[in-house]
């Protein structure tokens, strides 16, 4: 139907926009094109919480409070923690390979990668020991899985009030999650008051801001950070590992560069900034397998967009996965995996157009995207120094969307230790 089309979702039309100039207008005019939580399924609303739910001045105020914690200078402090969590995975994987009969071990890496990223998130953002507070992350995982079922009936009027097993389970899990987060919040407030806490993390910063006066909002921010790190960063890393297996020549090139830059030392920030192959590879993975396959906005008032007039009370959809694979923007090889298209950076690859937005674009780009990319790059560099990867014959390439794009049947990879 072309780059402008619409479909009916219940009683509300969804208008698809794929033209770069129009998408740029939508991204930058965020006061008119707002997030679509007013029309989102209630189970979905339980997970998508925190700063992303705010608009206008309320959003701007919270973004200003949080942004300093996500700047690169602050994120550099995360590197030792990422390497510590990476060490735990590397040690375990090396044992599995060493104890195998043929020097190789097939493992679905999804669980271990989720644990690794959850460990970083819990310590860096909240200052808590993941090993002692795993249940919070497990509850988030269960709620995430429920959304797959919830979205099947999301367009039925009154669906959130139906006494379905999904709705009942969602309410139970949400209640338990809120109780655990509230307990954590109270314990930390007490520790801060008694002068027992000195860590410089996002959680403590929020507790010392005016946001702490609103208990529900605090819990929403905590829940949002946990979910976004778990479902976004972890699966971006998983897709990178899968593609390193499938395109072994790029695995060899990336590993060669890692050893050339770091030698026998562990990865550090200065060395990461010298890498060229991994950033190209990661961008191509994000192009073909973006975490969010579409971005949507809710239009509260009629507006003119190019030659079209969009009425109020509609959803505007920017289908990330279609834009990222559009031959008009990326050439006839748009569906092929070619990291070299990013050899001169994103700006050159996109000709300065709004056609590459794995973490959104403009003022409301994901606040944690630098954190996510730094973790992925660092862990990949560390793993490449220790293992070679090969895709298992049991792997089935079947991406599915449960909020984020995930491998439906896992990521079984054959691991081998490097000498």
TrEMBL record:
Predominantly, its location class is membrane
How does the protein's chain sit in the membrane according to the entry? Single-pass membrane protein
Write the signal peptide boundaries.
Answer: none
- Which cofactor(s) are needed, names only? heme
Question: Listed GO cellular component terms?
Answer: membrane
What would be an example GO MF term here?
A: oxidoreductase activity, acting on paired donors, with incorporation or reduction of molecular oxygen
Indicate whether Iron-sulfur appears among the record's keywords: no
Q: Which UniProt keywords apply?
A: Heme, Iron, Membrane, Metal-binding, Monooxygenase, Oxidoreductase, Transmembrane, Transmembrane helix
Q: Matching Pfam families, A to Z?
A: p450 (PF00067)
**Cellular compartments annotated:** Membrane
Binding site residues for heme: 366
Family designation: Belongs to the cytochrome P450 family.
Protein name, as recorded? Putative secologanin synthase
The organism encoding this protein is Olea europaea
